[in-house]
Structure formats: structure tokens, C-alpha cells
Amino acid sequence: MVFTVLCLVFLPGGSFASIKIFKSGEMPRVLGDKSAGIVLDLDAPDEAMAAQVAELVGSNTSTFGFVGAEGGSFEVSQKTRDNDMASVRLQQKYEGISVEGAEVIAVTDGQGRLESVNSALVEVSGIDVKPVFAREYAVQIAAEAADIKNPDVGQDRGDGLVIANPENGGPALVWQVSIREAGDWSKAVRVQVVASGSDAGRVIKQVQIGRMVSAASVPVSIYDSSVTVVLPNPVYKGVQVLKNGKKTLPGYILISDEAKSANTSFERVTDFYKNMFGYRSWDGKNVEVVASVNVQRLGFLDLLGLKQNAAWMAPWKFFIFGAGGDQLGNFSGALDVVGHEFTHAVISSTSNLAYEKQSGALNEHFADVFGASIEYHYNKPAKPFHIGDTVLRGELAKKHEALRDMMNPHNGVAWQPENMREMPYQYKDEHCMPDNSNDNCGVHINCGIPGKAAALAISAVGWEPMYKVFYRVMTARLLARSKFLDYKHQMLEECAKSLRAQDCKAIEGAFEAVGI
What is the CA angle 475-213-313, rounded to 5? Predict the structure, then answer.
């Protein structure tokens, strides 16, 4: 791998601890010794920062298990910095094209002293990076594979030309596209189509999009879809009724309780993220929060299930809250549900945990953790580990106390495993290929395992001390394709930095209790 190299700074001194190297799914290794340290220049330009980390990887190929090839590079994709911690996330590229799931995260103290490196690198060489057809043709192929007649194309993080790493056959150049049916907004999927070589035109992955629950400091716009059968979309989201908590002209006529509830909920959720972590809106840059409420109120058949759902639609950059039905409703008024969906959006702008397999279960898990945390922060409920207890209706409300129960995963509306032994065989990473029929390998099922660990840890340590640990791990430490074991390692790393030794012992015990 060839880089423009900016030398790392090696400083002697007993104050430096050994550097831990983490690789996905493996136990950590130690680089160097206690008499040496590496300092990253946190104020350097992105190109220089990438070169610093590249030199570290290149000079420790056996530790990282990665050699690299001509045409390889790293590009800074995210930087976070606090008083006592900084994190630099770098995307691996080959001939200027991102390699799916291939990242390096360098974590330092507040002065740039390197403490750990989390890596998931992929050997890539000899791939033809010139696509044999344009993105528009890839959309046609993807639409045919997904049985979509009139595709509406979104733009999610990672869409475009990507070097994918399929389970069989090794890396391949693909077009990744996010599409849905334009007419009724159904079948939202992300599809990968091989773009070069002998397999050009073959669909190698198709997964569903939409993380469903089956005056503010951040700008908030609320649209009401109750007066139309047209489903909300980036062009038409409904009728705007509130802007930063104030009624628009149509809002004086059409304002609904759901719209008011959504505005209040988003005010609280965005304030929580801003006041606790200095993170503004879902992208960290104070972008406007856009949401549509009362979706499918006039949809008599509701064939798509949107009426009784809430979701963050990442490729289209807005939230939807269904009008509710005989089993589920009151989504915009449920602070934990709004916090859950908002956290999916935060994840899509930070660690971008892949929404499949164990990384997808972690995506769902963090949404639950922060949904519950926000609910606890404002309301102190009697059963703080219940998610979605206020959205249940009818027979569902008679049979269950909540959509999910983090402390008792068996007790939610859908059974979840509470330890690794109970993980369904068909959803284990090594046996499962994600698609629309298997919940992307059980992301809504397997999240019960880390959820139980989190509930045990919070019970032992307390809610408020855990907020920052969860946040830093979710946004600054985890790789896009992290597994449960990686999550445990990074929680313990962050705990050692932020909490007491006895707290870290309790957190470790919580993970061990669920078999991680």
C-alpha cells in the first residue's frame, strides 16, 4: 500500500501505556511496551492524519494482519474530540473507491497520545474499478430484482460505487443503490449490483431499509399526512403544520395532537443529545429534523404496514410516524420510540453500523438504549427498561407490557434471546445471508442479548454514569461491522477511561452473564 507518509511522533516516557490493537471478533493484542508512546497530531489536516495512521498500520503488518497493495489508501471519514479523548475514523479505499466495512479507528487521549486502534481491513488487489455500466442501469437491475415497477432512488451513506466483500468470491466492484416504489413507497431496499468483471450485472445483496419498531435548539419541521392518501416522500411530506414549535398557516387549521406530540418529543430528544454530548441534531451539524405524522390515516388497506410503525428513512433523510391502528399507535408521543428512531439517525451519521447480522443487532440495541435513556432522563418511569409500553393497543396491550423488555427479553411482543446460547441458529452470522425474509439476519431479535447486558450494567452502575460510555462507544469506537465481542471490548476500554474500576468490573460481569 503506497502512501504519502508523515512521520509519527514516538515519545519515550513511563507515562505512556501500551497500545491495544483490536480486530473484529478477536481478543485485543498489545503493540509496543510501556516505555514508548505514539502521538497523533490532532490538528493536522485530514490527509496528514490519514498518513500517520497508514504508517502505523504499514509498520506493523503482522499485528494488523494486513499488508495492502498498490493503489490503497485511507481517508478520514469522522473525527471526534473531547477534553480527555479523541477518535479518528478512517475509511479504507482502493483506487479511490471505498471498501465496504473496511475501517480503522484510532483512539487517543485529549493530547493525541495513542491508546488503541480498532481495525477491520480487507486485502484488495487486482480489481477492475471501471464499471461496465452506469448507475442508472444498476437501478434498473436492482428494481427488477426487488420487483419495483417505478423506482424512487434515495442517497444513503455508502451508496454509489463500492468495493464489496461478499462471503463467496472475494471483493468485487458494485453499484450500491437505495430504492423504493415511487407510487406507494413500498419495498424500500438497498441493493448491490456487481459493476465489473465476469459477474457484472449480478445482484449480490438485497436488504430492507427502514428501522421500524414492529422551541428546540435544533430546527424541527413537522408535516401532517392525515389529509392525503399520498405517502410522504422527499418531495411531498404532507402539509407542514409546525416549524420550530410555531404553527404555519395550514397549521392553524390542520394541527393535530400527533403533530404537537412529535414536536415536543423531538425538542426533548435533540436537547438530550446536545446537552449531554454536545451533539446537535441527528448529523452533529444542526441539520433540520423533518418528520411526517399520521402516515396512512386514510390508507384503508395499509398493505405496507406503515400505519402501525415508526421509522427513520436514511436514504430520504426524514422520520415517519404512522397514524396507528388496533394494535399500535401514539408513536410520536412515545418519547422512547422517538428517541429510538432518532438514535438510528445518529448512528447513520457516525459509526454507521451495518444493518445486518450482529452489527445490525447492535444498531437496534443502541436505539433501544438511548430510547430508554431519554425516557428515563425526563420521566423516570417505574419500569425503565421497557421500550414502547405506551404504544400498545387492544389485544396486544392486554397480552404484553411493552414492545421490548431489555431486562427480560423473553417478555416483549416478539421473543428475544437473552444470552448467546439462545441465539437462533438461522440468525447466527456464520449461517445467515441477510435478506428481506429473515430480518437482515435477526437484527430485531438478537438485539435482546446486548440489551440484557446493558440493563444489567445500568442497574449496577447507574443511568447517568453510563450515558457517556454508551455514546462514545456507539459514535467513536465501533466499526461499521462490529460484533458483540467487539462491543464488549470497546465498552471496557471506554469504562477504563471514564468510570471507576468497580464499575468496569460490573460491566464486564454483565457481558459475561449473557455469554459475551
Answer: 60
Nearest CA-CA partner of 179 in 291, 316, 337: 316
Model pLDDT for residues 121-167, shown as the tens digit of each residue = 988 988 899 999 999 999 999 999 999 999 999 988 889 999 998 66
Least confident of 1-10, 300-309, 407-416: 1-10
Average pLDDT, the chain: 84
Domains in the chain and their CATH numbers?
9-120 (3.10.450), 135-208 (no CATH), 220-342 (3.10.170.10), 357-513 (1.10.390.10)
Tell me whether residue 375 is one of the annotated catalytic residues. no
Contacts (Cβ under 8 Å, ≥6 apart) of 300? none
How far is the C-alpha of 243 from the C-alpha of 433, rounded, in Å?
43
Specify whether 508 is catalytic: no
Rounded CA-CA distance 415/379 in Å is 27
Report pLDDT for 238.
44
Catalytic member of 344, 377, 444, 489:
444
The separation between CA 166 and the C-alpha centre of its own chain, rounded to angstroms, equals 20
Give alpha helix (H) positions in 4-92: 46-58, 61-64
Written as nine digits, the cell of 387 is: 421500550
CA distances from 50 to 2, 350, 447 (A): 12, 18, 33
Place of cell 441527528: 282
Q: What is the rounded average pLDDT of the residues 96-120?
A: 93
**Looking at 100, 103, 341, 494, which residue is catalytic?**
341
> Considering the entire predicted model, what is its pTM?
0.86
CA 41, 62, 430 angle in degrees (round to 5)?
105
Please give the pLDDT value at position 7: 36
**What pairs with residue 321 in β-bridges?**
310
CB-based contact 199:205 (threshold 8 Å): no
Q: Grid coordinates standing for 61?
A: 503488518
Least confident stretch, 309-318, 359-368, 424-433: 309-318
Pairing of strands 151-154, 114-120: unpaired
Among the ranges given (318-327, 384-393, 465-474), the one the predictor scored with the smallest mean pLDDT: 318-327
Residue with cell 436514504: 315
Dihedral sign for Cα atoms in the order 340, 342, 347, 352? positive
Is the pLDDT score of 303 beyond 90?
Answer: no
Neighbours of 399 (CB within 10 A): 9
Let me know: does 290 contact 318? Beta carbons within 8 Å: yes
**pLDDT at position 231:** 43
Q: What does the alpha-carbon distance between residue 116 and residue 434 come to, in Å, rounded to a whole number? A: 31
Q: Residue 463's CB: how many other CB atoms inside 10 A?
A: 14
